[in-house]
Amino acid sequence: MPPRQRILDAARTLFFRHGIQGVGVEAIAEAAGTNKMTLYRHFESKELLVAEYLRALAAENVRVWDDLEAAHPGDPLAQIRAWLHSVGGHGEGIDHSGCAMMSAAIQIADPEHPGRKAVEAAQRTHRERLVALCRSAELRDPELLADQLFLLVEGSRAAYRSVGPDGPGSSLCRLAGPLISAHQQPAAASPVV
């Protein structure tokens, strides 16, 4: 495997385990089987390495949406439900990059940090994809529903990580179902004055 990829793989593992702030370039270089000079040859700074790591996670998230679309072509509501079901599993084999993105957003306060910009771009893309699915499914208030589902998913991930599998994070699909159903109902008629 080329050094650049080894460095990215090592960074991903270490950032997930210890957080972005808890890992230095020396530890990353050592875990990648290389040295700091090689790391800096591929990434001019830790900040740029963090940004590249986060962009790779964002690309994986886009592929998840593409896979859902391929599995449920022409059925945006089924895509939303499949996404919720996959995220709600929280177990082995589940993509926890949403947690990694949220963790990075918390750790990187500087709005000019390239990693912060990567997180913001990824979250905008994620929201736009969810809004588009809600709109295609002809759900009422698609932007509001997308935001509600997004917050529910992120809260579920946080609860799962902090409380465990028997906590409120395990109820994601049960909580999302009525929310989606409420957006399927026709808008209430305005009262006649």
UniProtKB/TrEMBL annotation:
Residues 24-43 bind DNA. Residues 1-61 form the HTH tetR-type domain. Keywords: DNA-binding. It holds the Pfam family TetR_N. InterPro entries: Homeodomain-like_sf, HTH-type_TetR-like_transc_reg, HTH_TetR, Tet_transcr_reg_TetR-rel_C_sf. Gene3D superfamilies: Tetracycline Repressor, domain 2. This is AcrR family transcriptional regulator. It comes from Kaistia geumhonensis.
